[in-house]
Design brief:
Blueprint: H1 14-32, H2 40-47, H3 49-55
Helix pairs in contact: 1-2
């Protein structure tokens, strides 16, 4: 049985942390929205999907 050592050896999953941050941004946007649900355009805006597509090289 392998047990992780105790101490300052915390492992960070950067992808998981980024996903948690994005979920938080969506929750904040949804709580501030006037409509019942966020539109797809609003979700894209919060997640900066359009900006990412425009910034991607070769597309």
């Amino acid at each position: 049985m392998h047990v992780a050592p105790v101490g300052g050896t915390a492992v960070q999953d950067h992808v998981a942390l980024a996903e948690i941050e994005l979920c938080g941004e969506l929750i904040i946007a949804a709580s501030a929205a006037h409509e019942d649900r966020l539109s797809l355009e609003s979700i894209d805006e919060v997640l900066k999907v359009v900006q990412e597509r425009e910034d991607a090289p070769g597309e």
